[in-house]
């Protein structure tokens, strides 16, 4: 079972209390964007084997969205953080690097 801690209310909750929201840190494009940019935003997603950043909602708790970093192979959770950030906190990136040397994901390595 996947256990994530909500960074807002501090509750450690299992996945049945949460709603998955897909990949975190997607670049959204405005109304003047090209059709290729919009298509990429809608349909192109990372699906890594390893560390992945995801959006989750504490549905049966405070109701807020947050981000989580976890390994898709082992379900190991590295941490959670506020959804109002543009990239993962440095402490979390350092924690992942310590356990998975050489990992990379987008511009956040």
From TrEMBL:
Kindly give the Gene3D superfamilies that the UniProt entry links to this protein.
Folate-binding superfamily (3.30.2270.10)
What name has this protein been given in UniProt?
A: Sarcosine oxidase subunit delta
Q: Which domain of life is it from?
A: Bacteria
Q: A single Pfam family, by name? A: SoxD
InterPro entries per the UniProt record, alphabetical:
SoxD, SoxD_sf
